[in-house]
Amino acid sequence: MIRKKQLEIILQKLDPHPDPVPELEQYMTPGDVASTLLCLAYSQGDIAGKVVYDLGCGTGRLAIGAALLGAKKVVGVDIDERALEVARRNADKAGVKVDWVMEDVEEFRRERADTVVQNPPFGVQRRGADVKFLRKAMELGKIVYTLHKAAPRNREFIENRVKVFGGKITKRVELTFHIPMQFKFHTRNIYRFKVDLYRIEGGK
Ligand SMILES: C[S@@+](CC[C@H](N)C(=O)[O-])C[C@H]1O[C@@H](n2cnc3c(N)ncnc32)[C@H](O)[C@@H]1O
Fold first, then answer.
1. Whose CA is nearest to atom 8 of ligand 1?
2. Ligand 1 within 6 A of 119 CB?
């Protein structure tokens, strides 16, 4: 199996979105966060030989990482065609096959996946976007790995939503997220903040 550090380096080197849009919260999952999420999922038996969906896949880091870790089939979904163009090139560069689908996650309907991985919009630009992704992930995946803001009130909110959607949180890991200055309203070179990685079982 590919090592965690190796995976982080490969994912970190994939091409970014050429012109990210703030409204879609188009920032990439940092390589270390992506490899932590994927290696945790791998260690739980949720990746190798499994059908994996990446919702809001952007330029493809999580989807490509899942394919590198031996997923049987990987589907990446994003609303933005330009992000998917980069994702396609990134997958070729990494030598893996992923099915890329351009669609709003709300409209995306397929048979249930074994595992959904996602770094959704946090709902900062569009209120409720995080919940929309969470609901869909739990509808589509037997197991879900999802990232959310780590503020205490948000934690309570996510726990509540997971219950309402019929699932159970089996793990929560706090991680540090760093994103480089990329939008007009950014005033610092780098933004660091805490995120929670959740493993969720059993949505409706
Ligand atoms: C935080 S970024 C994560 C990107 C990618 N998963 C990664 O790991 O680098 C959120 C992604 O969700 C996509 N997105 C936002 N709203 C969407 C929607 N309604 N349907 C599908 N994708 C959406 C954005 O285009 C963006 O690529």
1. 29
2. yes
CA distance 82 to 106: 19
* Full domain range(s) for residue 37: 4-145
Interval 110-147: pLDDT, tens: 999 999 999 999 887 778 899 999 999 999 999 999 99
Q: Is the CB of 80 under 6 A from ligand 1?
A: yes
Residue 72: CATH number of its domain: 3.40.50.150
- Residue 80 alpha carbon, nearest atom of ligand 1: 25
The verdict on residue 95 lying in a domain is yes
Q: Answer whether 149 contacts ligand 1 (Cβ < 6 A).
A: no
Q: How many structural domains comprise the chain?
A: 1
| CA–CA separation, 3 and 38 (whole Å) | 11
Give yes or no for residue 56 CB within 6 A of ligand 1: yes
At 187 the pLDDT is: 75
Ligand 1 atom closest to residue 21's alpha carbon, by position in its atom list? 25
DSSP secondary structure, 77-109, as one string: EES-HHHHHHHHHHHHHHT---EEEES-GGG--
Rounded to whole angstroms, the Cα distance separating 192 from 50 reads 33
Q: Which pairing describes strands 113-118 and 51-55: parallel, antiparallel, or unpaired?
A: parallel
Q: Which tens digit of pLDDT belongs to each residue from 7-44?
A: 999 999 999 998 898 888 888 999 999 999 999 999 99
Pocket flag, ligand 1, residue 25 (CB < 6 Å)? yes
pTM of this prediction? 0.95
